[in-house]
């Protein structure tokens, strides 16, 4: 029997949303995000320190026994949504969702795994799973081999790797924690469309790390981590789409032409009304995915289907919301100083992350036993 996810926000989630939004209003304003993008820094370290140290948000998925908050995907989704609303340049989705979800999916909690979880929860180490950002939960992993105890291989387009302290590497012999500055590790920043989520190529040439799990356990754990990333990505897309809609409505109310607000023209009203309906539809899809990831009700297949449905719906809507925002802001929307281009680039980048809508559409067809699109 299919599980019925809870789609209503709890009081705890509302309070968390208010606290994170208040922080980002002052610490991740558009001018600050643009300045960081021009600086070449991989992410906003001051904001990350506040999120992880002062607020403890990096440990939401980590159990209290391992130094975390012992919350779940629902609470983490709230944080991801607000970070998406601000296109905040921090490695939260990759470092505080995908990584702990991967480690927690390992069947054996060794001392090394617990120690790394504690560092991730405290924000004292940014640990990034070394797979391409476009990797879907069921895709083959990059080929990294082990020879004489050293790791060899190249992984391209790894999100947030440039600012990582630790890299989680899935090799033919297991899952390894490799210090990013270890001998034999080369992290080369790449030119990415999304300036707020930098990509890098990771080259391993005899690098050595700590074995966290054998190969048989590593692959399912990595899939679980990527599934969590894909599920909560829908919450990020919700946040950025809502910002685009809200700011576009505000602009069309304030901007006048022929002595009338632009928003009073019927053609624009219809476009925005349809966009509102589309954006509003992301929330139940994203919430359902986060809820089933948190509770596990209905089994793994239910969570996989909810995540796939959320991505099939949220990805194109977020892109269209950003495109509409850019067009309807007119000439000012085309300028570097206006932040709308950051949202369009993030939406475009998100549309191919963790497999993209096309790959997840195939997953919906498979899980629902429908003809493939």
Element-level helix/strand string = HHHHHHEEEEEEEEHEEHHHHH
Bulk shape: globular
- How many alpha or pi helices? 12
In which order are the strands of the major sheet placed? 1-4-5-8
**Which structural class matches the secondary elements?**
alpha+beta
Largest sheet: 4 strands, mixed
DSSP, total strands: 10
**Helix fraction bin:** 40-55%
Gyration radius over CA: 20 Å
Family: Belongs to the acyl-CoA dehydrogenase family.
Protein name: Acyl-CoA dehydrogenase
Keywords: FAD, Flavoprotein, Oxidoreductase
InterPro entries: Acyl-CoA_Oxase/DH_mid-dom_sf, AcylCo_DH-like_C, AcylCo_DH/oxidase_C, AcylCoA_DH/ox_N, AcylCoA_DH/ox_N_sf, AcylCoA_DH/oxidase_NM_dom_sf
Description:
With 373 residues, this protein is an alpha+beta fold. The protein contains twelve helices and ten strands. The protein has helices at residues 11-27, 30-39, 45-54, 73-85, 92-104, 111-122, 215-254, 266-280, 282-295, 300-328, 340-350, 356-367; strands at 127-129, 145-147, 150-159, 166-171, 174-179, 185-190, 199-207, 210-214, 256-257, 260-261. A four-stranded mixed β-sheet has the order 1-4-5-8, covered by helices on one side. A four-stranded antiparallel β-sheet has the order 2-3-7-6, with no helix packed on it. The model has no long low-confidence stretch (mean pLDDT 94).
